[in-house]
Amino acid sequence: MKHVLGAVCGASVLLLAVPAMAETTLTIATVNNGDMIRMQGLTAEFTKKNPDISVKWVTLEENVLRQRVTTDIATKGGQFDVLTIGTYEVPIWAKKGWLVPLANLGGDYDVADLLPRIKDAVSVDGKLYAAPFYGESSMVMYRTDLFEKAGLKMPEKPAWDFVIDAAKKLTDKSAGTYGICLRGKAGWGENMAFLSAMANSYGARWFDEKWEPQFNTPEWKTTLTTYVNLMKEAGPPGASSNGFNENLALFNAGKCAMWIDATVAASFVTNPKDSKVADKVGFALAPNTGLGKNANWLWAWNLAIPVGSKKMEAAEKFIAWATSKDYTKLVASKEGWANVPPGTRTSLYKNDEYLKVAPFAKLTLASIDAADPNKPTVKPVPYVGVQYAAIPEFQGIGTQVGQQFSAALAGSMTVDAALTAAQSATEREMKRAGYIK
Amino acid sequence: MARMATTRRVVISTAVAWLFGFLIFFPILWMVLASFKTELEAFAIPPSFLFFHWTTENYATVQERSDYFHHAMNSVIIAGGSTLIALLIAIPAAWSMAFSPTKRTKDILLWMLSTKMMPPVGVLVPIYLIYKTFGLLDSRIGLVFILCLGNLPIVIWMLFTYFKEIPRDILEAARMDGATIGRELVYVLTPMAIPGLASTMLLNLILAWNEAFWTLNLSTSNAAPLTTFIASYSSPEGLFWAKLSAASTLAIAPILVLGWFSQKQLVRGLTFGAVK
Q1: In CATH, which of 1.10.3720.10, 3.40.50.80, 6.10.140.1670, 1.10.275.10 is domain B67-275?
Q2: Labelling A306: which of A11, A12, A184, A384 has CA 20 to 30 A away?
Q3: What pTM does this model have?
Q4: Which of A75, A244, A274 is facing B39, going by the closest CB pair?
């Protein structure tokens, strides 16, 4: 027994020793999305060009990553050299002084080629604090065969009235076909991403110029009533637990006539390997009510350097490589043009080879152009962000409000009660944070 | 007649027990099945139970994309190391509380248990700062230390209840024969408490293996155990259930095998704590 214990202790001590490395090792935190996985697969191309740099990947679930990275960056832990963060975090973290401005991306990087909306979203006071890796907006994806059968024609810029009527006409619950699939799962990045964008198109806003929450306005009531009624009549059962992936599965299985969600979904629903309806999908801009704003959001996953990193030079080299035009070409040569990260560079949307394999490219670009994070709503607002307000408190508030709206969709709460609860919860948080008295 | 009624009762209760057993086991079974489906089939509604196109491509993808053995080795070291150290501290602690209690023994035991009542996230930032200062972030020794601390109260409590069961007279007899405290602990108490020690060790091993809060927050790559390996397969945009299931099946396989072979001790250990 004694010998066994001794041996185990000895072995443990030996194994606990971590080997030392002479070269610069970058630790990169990222999420498990197709484009990021592809980037990991191509790391060898970067290290071949930069033999003194090696790369370690830390892939985590989106919310775990957010918590993990926030803890590290707030304590200046220095565990990561490159972070994958969203457009929501970039302005907040940049203002807190947590991110290093990217000033040395290299002469051939061509910052002017970045899509203006996306570039705005990752810049503060004209300085770039993160480099966009891929960008997205949201749009309508619809079944051309079902529309044709019902004698309907989708306009390129549909109005909400048309979408609602079409959804009701196309619903055939006995056949398991539903007119429209929308997000219902609670969360600031889940149902609230869609509902905030929809509210923008109905003239609603999160806060007025003095940071007063606006859920007691008629615009929000119209938005939420329309959404709940539409989903009750034309949505799939159990919609209050559907997020992006659930709706993707429903649409790919041919259960939805329309789906309004992220533009990146276009490449999934048109891929015959994953989708039963790959050759029957059409695209249109997100709906509007004629007030000048469409119900589409703007989001990008970006690469940034935290101030705690001790390997800034190598980190910036990596970011410049992964978000460059050459990287796009590299992906195209290895995996085809259909797999290049979309939504960040103007040049991609002028590339004939890409346009040939991506029938949704033009609408993706039009959708991104239609979402202005600096002027997201019909009435003026004090915040930046289309489907979110870029303030640190928004994650918590957004999720609380999302829970109320998800409950309204599930039928366990009325629309009025959900709006009242959302208003009082938001007021409480905003008072606590000192925005209002 | 009475005999028949008894037989019927046995049959019914056996069937009910099997049904409950199956229900509890079902999520694991479903996970294993999903790991052999394609992404589209894993998400299909209505789901297919056994009649689908079986594939091992998810396992191949997982193998190709991440280093399973690196993570598994870290899990073995972290779970094993923390259990070993916890036992080394807990055996003398439980011994002293079981055989030489003072006025404050009960309070100390309760205080130790109370540390388990605090949500770990409450001390994340202070621990993170301490680890940063001492260079323990993303190190196996750091994780061994935190998991050992976290599980120590449970280990001490379990061992305490086992030791209480051992008749004091035997220890006194050993002392009469001239045994020192050290010899008494190693040659008399420990062999008698082997079943208890084994079940405590197993339970602690499983708890440490499954621990996901500290292991996710304090490790990045060098010390990352299987919990981070699983977490890397969840995706906000794109279908991932089949690959996630394959990763989870690989992650639980070693501990499942260990649990299967030692279920007798485990059940004894678990029910022991519950009854006491």
Answers
A1: 1.10.3720.10
A2: A384
A3: 0.84
A4: A274
